[in-house]
Amino acid sequence: MEHRVDDLIQIFKDCFEDTYQTRLVRGDIEPLYRPAQPGQDLHEIVFAHGFFSSALHEISHWLIAGPQRRLLEDFGYWYEPDGRTAAQQALFEQVEIKPQATEWILSDAAGYRFQVSTDNLNGEFKDNTEFKHSVYQQVCHYCEEGLPMRTEIFRNALAAFYDTPRDLCRERFRLADLR
């Protein structure tokens, strides 16, 4: 099946626009979460370049963010651009474990190949084996303990649309598959 961002935008709209006043928006360059401003009814999750994987990743950040964080631009997180030192990269990876585990689960529900991202092509080299392992362990935790409610809603909607298995089972996720 073809993976079109317009389908993803509609699925997200059907799941969350009315209940969370949030929409998914195709952006030009950098992704960004923008809480609604005066005179604007909807919060916006802006994903980069119309990429399907960027949309899933930004949705994952939104799904993890609690109510207070969803009132802050980019959920109140710092972002150090590409070119991070090894120490900066380690901090980046700590906050990316849950979003990337969530993205992997959503990718699976959409029948889309997931690729772990360290987002630091021009920075100091840091072996990402430990990061991949942490993402995998978080996926296993979600498989055993269940997903947060909004994540479960969206995952089920993706599985229904893409006709993939509805059950979340650990056997579909393998550490060896992470690139």
Provide an overview of this structure:
The protein is built from five helices and three strands. With 179 residues, the protein is mainly α. It has one domain (5-177). Strands 1-3-2 form a three-stranded mixed sheet. The protein is globular and about 45 Å long. The two termini are 22 Å apart.
Class inferred from helices and paired strands = mainly alpha
Morphology: globular
- Individual helix count: 5
Gyration radius over CA: 16 Å
Strand order of the largest sheet: 1-3-2
| N- to C-terminal distance | 22 Å
Profile the largest sheet.
Answer: 3 strands, mixed
Share in β-strands: 5-15%
Quick tags:
mainly alpha, 5 helices, 47% helix, 3 strands, globular, 179 residues, 3-stranded mixed sheet, Elongation factor P hydroxylase
Topology at a glance:
Blueprint: H1 5-20, E1 22-26, E2 32-34, E3 43-47, H2 52-64, H3 86-109, H4 129-145, H5 149-162
Parallel strand pairs: 1-3
Antiparallel strand pairs: 2-3
Short description:
By secondary structure, this protein is mostly helical. The protein has five helices and three strands.
